[in-house]
Amino acid sequence: MAERCSWNERVVTAGESLDSDVRDHLASCADCAAIRHAHDELLGAFRGIARPSLSPHFRPQLMARV
Asked: Which of 1, 23, 47, 57 is most buried, taking the most CB atoms under 10 A from its CB?
């Protein structure tokens, strides 16, 4: 298996506003560009979906088990 670019983690954790170093790297690295695209698509799929709420009994039951 080919080695991945050392920028992969930085590209994914960069957040919404990419600094110029990350933008420049994405323009020159197909591996990182593909990973960032997949990451953005995944985040987009979760936008607008309501978070599930826990049962009011969850925390007391969890703490009792701990």
From this structure: 23
Question: Reduced to 3 states, what is the DSSP secondary structure of residue 9?
Answer: helix
Name which of 3, 7, 41 is nearest 24 in CA terms: 7
Residue 42 token pair = 């995944």
pLDDT classification of 62: cutoffs 50, 70, 90: very high
Closest among 8, 7, 17, 6 to 39, alpha carbons compared: 8
Q: Which two tokens stand for residue 66?
A: 């701990």
Residues 31, 11 contacting (CB under 8 angstroms): no
pTM equals 0.65
DSSP element (H, E) containing 60: helix 58-65
